[in-house]
Amino acid sequence: MYIYDQYDRQIINERVNQFRGQTDRFLAGELSETEFLPLRLQNGLYIQRLAPMLRVAVPYGLYNTAQLRKLAHIARHYDKGYIHVSTRQNFQLNWPRLEDVPDILEELATVEMHAVQTSGNCIRNTTTDQYAGVAIDEIEDPRPWCELIRQWSTFHPEFALLPRKFKIAVCATEEDRAAFKFHDIGVELVHNDEGHTRFHVHVGGGLGRTPVISQLIKKDLHWQHLITYLEAVLRVYNQLGRRDNKYKARIKILVKAMGPEAFAERVDQEWQHIKGDENTLTEEAVARVQAFFAPQDYDVLDDSSCNRELASQRLESNDFGRWLDKNVQPHKQDGYAIVNLALKPTGIAPGDITDLQMEAIADLADQYSGGLLRNTHQQNIVLADVKKADLFALWQRCDALNIATPNLGHLSDPICCPGGDYCALANAKSIPIAEAIQRQFDDIDYLYDLGPIDLNISGCMNACGHHHVGHIGILGVDKKGREFYQISLGGNMGREASIAKILGPSFSPEEVPTVIEKVLDVFVKQRQPEEQFIDTYRRVGIDPFKEYVYA
Amino acid sequence: MPNSSNSIKPSNLIKDQQIIDNPWQIIAKDAEFSIETAGDHLLLPLATWLQHAEQLKNSKTIGVWLDSDESPEPLQALCQSIPVIAINFPVFADGRGYSYARTLRDYYAYTGDLRAIGDVLHDQMYFYKRCGFSSYLIREDANAEKALAGLNDFSANYQVGSDQANPDTPIFQKR
Ligand code: HEM
Ligand code: SF4
Question: According to CATH, what is the number of the domain B13-173?
C-alpha cells in the first residue's frame, strides 16, 4: 500500500488547516453559502436532508486496518456508530456536524486519510479493480498508475473548477471490474507485443441522467505520457465543456457534440504542447510507486493439498461450501484466496457497517490478510490475501458478524444508493425497495438457480446506484408527489457494456417485488440450460418481459 | 503595505505579494472606444483590442482583457509585449480562465502581467498563482488583505504548474 512521505503529509496537513479556516470564515459569515459550497464539496461535505454527509476518500479502494479502526472511532464519536461503503470505493458518514468536520479531517490525517476531491466539480477518486494485484486475469497491477493519477490530480490548480465532476477508472484485467466504460476517462492497461505497458484511453462515459458508453480516443499510449495525455484531455474539457446547463456539462456531452474523432484530434493538438514536459513519467518515478504495491511475502503452499482440505471442510458444512462458491475468488498465488465480506444482509441498508463490525473486520484483516482491505464498487469489502487453510476459521468469524451471506453477484446483493432516507435529491426511497426484494427472494437455492443477476437501485436520475447498468435496474421517480419505480432491463457494466432499456410505466413500491418476480418468471421460461439472465435478455429482447409484466 | 495615498478608495489589487495601487481601468465590452483619444492604463475587451492590434501590440500602457468564453488563441502571435492581460472570472466557479492562463504562459510564452479579474476571492488565490497569474484584482467587496494569505495555502505541489515566482518540478521528480 502507498505510504505517505514528507510531501504527502505536508500537503494533507496544510489542507486540513485550509479547510478549518474556510469553515471558520463560513460560520463567521465571511463566506457566503455559494462561496463555501465548492470548498466544502471538494472536502467531501454535502448538506443533506437530515444532516451533512462526509465522503472520505479511499484511493482506488485500498486501506489498512489502522485506517479502518480510525473510521470506527470517528463513526462512534462524531456520528451514529455506522458508516457506508459507496459505489466509488469510498466511505460515507451520514451524520457528522459541520463544526466537527475540521476535527474529523484532522483525525483522518493522522492515519493518512482525507476527504479531498470526493465531491465537487473536480477530478474525483480514481477507482479500479477490487482484486488488483491478486487477480488471476490481471495484466499488471493497476494501482501504481492509480496512485500516480491520484497525485497528479490532487489540488491540480487548473482543474479545480471544471464544468462538472470528473471520474477516472483504470482497468488492467480481462474481465472488467472497474466499469471503465462508464467513466469520464477509462484507462485500459494493455501490454504490447514486447510486453511493455501501454494504455488505451476511453473518454466520455458516464451515468447520471444521460448514460453513455465511452469512446476509445487513443490507442497504445506509452506509459511515460499517461499524465500529460490526461492533462491534455482535461484542458480541452475545461475550456470547451458546457457551463450553461449542469445536465449537459459532463465530458460525455462534449465528446458526443464534437464527435470522438474531432475530440481526439483537439486533445492531440493540446498534447503536442506538453508531451515530454516535466509531468512526463520516468522509470524511477514509476518504480518508486510500484515498490509500494509489491506482492507480499507469500508462503510457498501446495495448492492441491489446500484444495483437498477445503473439499473435506465442505462436507462438514454446507453453508461453508456455499460461501466458498459464492464469496471466495481465485488468487494468483497458490494456496491463497480472495474473500468478499458481504455487506448486504437483509434488513440492513446495503453497504452499511457499524463501528463494532469495523473493528472486528480490522481484526480479521490483521489476522488473516496482511492488514489490508479493499472496498468494492458493489459496496462490499474484500480481504485479498487469505490462506486457503484459514478460510474455514475466517468463515466462522464472518458468519458470527453477519457478513457471510453467500449471495455475491446474486439478486439479493444489490447496488443501492442511500435514496430518500438520506439524500435531499431523491425522488424516492431506495433502501426499503432493496429490502423488500431481499425479503421476497430469500430462498437462496432459487437465487442460485437463477444465476448471477446485478440488481441496481437509484433513488433518482442522478444514478448513484448505477441503475442504467444493472441487469435489472430500478429507478425512483416522483409521480404526482408519490414514490414510484421505473424498471429497466439489460444493462451491463463489464467489457460488453450496455445500457438498460426501460420496461414501461412505473410501479408503486408495493408492486415492485411482484414485478421483479414476473420478470424472473419470463427469464426462467425463456432461458436455455445454464444461460445467465443477461444472455437470455440479449437473445430474446425486452418484448416477452413487457408483454408478461403488463398483461 | 497598501499604498493608496493618491486614490480615493483603497485598491484591491494584489501583485508581488502585496496590495498596490491600481491605475488600470477596465473598459466594458459595449463601451465606445477611439484609439485617437484613448488615455493610458486601459484594459480593452478582446474584440476591441484585436480591431486595433497593429497599433496596440507594442503599447506599454494599453492592455487587454478576456472574458471566460474567450480563448486567448487570437493573441498567440501578438501578445508578447502586451503589458497586462486580464482574464475575467464572471463567477469564481467558472474555471476556464485557469486553462487560458496556462495557455498564455506555457504555449505562447507570455511574460507580462497576467491578471485575474472579476469574482476573484481568497480561496482560489493559490490556484490562480499556480496557473501563472501574477496579479489579482480582488472582488470589490472582499478583503484583499485577507485574500493575500490564500497565496500561501500550500508549500508543496504534486504537479507542475505555471507559477511565475517559483517554477516547480513535480514532487515525483524530487523524491
Ligand atoms: C446522499 C447524498 C448523495 C448525493 C447528494 C449525491 C449526488 C449525486 C449526483 C447529483 C450525481 C449525478 C451527477 C451527474 O451525473 O452529473 C451523483 C452521481 C453518482 N453518485 Fe451520488 N450522491 C449521493 C450519494 C451517493 C452514494 C452514497 C453513492 C455510492 C453508493 C454515490 C455514488 C454515485 C456515483 C457512482 C455516481 C456516478 C454516476 C455517474 O457516473 O454519472 N452517491 N451523485
Ligand atoms: S441516485 Fe439520487 S437519490 Fe440516490 S443518492 Fe444519488 S442523488 Fe440521492
Answer: 3.20.20
